[in-house]
Amino acid sequence: MDLGIAGKWALVCGASKGLGYGCALALVREGVNVLIVARGADALQAASERLLAEPLRAAEVQVQSVAADITTAEGRAAVFAVRKDFDIIVTNAGGPPPGDFRDWDRDTWVKALDANMLTPIELIKGAVDGMAARGFGRIVNITSSSVKAPIDVLGLSNGARSGLTGFVAGVARTTKLASANVTINNLLPGVFDTDRIRATVEGAARKTGQSVESVIEARKQNVPARRLGTPEEFGAACAFLCSQQASYITGQNILTDGGAYPGTH
Ligand code: NAD
Fold first, then answer.
1. With CB atoms 3.0 to 4.6 Å apart as the test, which of 8, 30, 162, 209 could cross-link to 87 if both were Cys?
2. Measured CA angle at 117 (ends 114, 123), to 5 deg
3. Measured in angstroms, how far is the CA atom of residue 18 from the centroid of ligand 1?
C-alpha cells in the first residue's frame, strides 16, 4: 500500500536505535524525509548511514540528524533551529527507571515528567498549529502498554505517561486540529526486542541467577504471540498512523503487544 506521504518531513525522536529507529526506517521506506534525534552523535551518525543505505527510495529521501537531549529546552531549540515545519512528529525518549516509589523525590518525578509527558507536549505545542494551517499533520507518541496495564515497579512511567495520555485525549479532539487533518495518537509497545529490553532482562537475570535467554523465554511465554516484537513491525504500525489513509484515526491508544493485554479496551 502506498501511504501517500512521500516527500513529507518527519521529526523522529530517540531514533538512533530501538523503536524510534524502527519508526524512522518505516518512514524512510515510504519516501519520507526524516530528521532524527538522539543524544549520542556517533550512534546517530551510524543510524543515518543505515537509513541512507535503504535500497528503495533512498536516492530521493533526505536524512538529517541533530545530536541533542530532546527532553531539554535547549535540545528542542536545536531541532527547531534546523527545521520547524514538520508534517510528522514521532515523540520518544528513554523510559524512566524502575524502583520503589518511597525512594523517589521531587527531582526524580520532575525528570520523569519532563521526559515522558512534558517533552511530547512541548513538541505538540510547537508543531500542531503550523500543521493545521497546512492541512496535514501526524503526531505519534511512543508510550507503553503499561498505560493500560500499569506495572508496579514502573510507577514513574505509569504516572508520567498517564498524564500525557490524558492530555492527548483532550487536545486531539479539538475541532481546530481534527478538522484540519491533524491527528495525534499514542502507540503502546508491549515487549519489543531492543537494547532497552535486553538491559532490563540482563538486570533480572543477574538478580535471579538465571540466564538471559531463559528470562527472555519467560517473557515470551506471557505473550500470546510467543515472541518479542521487532522494531521494524512497530515502525510499520507507526508509518500507517502517519499515512493519508489514517486521517480518521485520532486520540487513540493503539497497542502493539502480540495480544498480551487481556482486555477489550
Ligand atoms: P532503546 O533504549 O532501545 O532506544 C532509545 C532511543 O532513544 C535511543 O536512540 C536513545 O539514544 C534515544 N534517547 C533516549 N533518551 C533520549 C533523550 N533524552 N533525547 C534524545 N534521544 C534519547 O529504547 P526502546 O526500547 O526503543 O524504547 C523506546 C521507548 O519505548 C522508551 O520510552 C521505552 O520506555 C518505551 N517502551 C519500550 C518497550 C520495549 O519493549 N522496548 C516497551 C514499553 C515501552
1. 8
2. 90
3. 6
140 within ligand 1 shell (Cβ under 6 A): no
Residue 109 CA to residue 104 CA, distance in Å, equals 7
Q: Which atom of ligand 1 is nearest to the CA of 115?
A: 18
Question: Nearest-CA neighbor of 156 among 170, 166, 169, 144?
Answer: 144
CB 153 within 8 A of CB 95: no
The ligand 1 atom nearest the CA atom of 229: 40
Contact 190, 223 (CB under 8 A): yes
Atom of ligand 1 nearest to the CA of 38: 21
**Residue entry with cell 505517561:** 161
Q: How many CA atoms lie within 13 Å of 67's alpha carbon, on the beta-carbon side?
A: 10
192 lines ligand 1 (CB under 6 A): yes
Q: Is the pTM of this model over 0.85?
A: yes
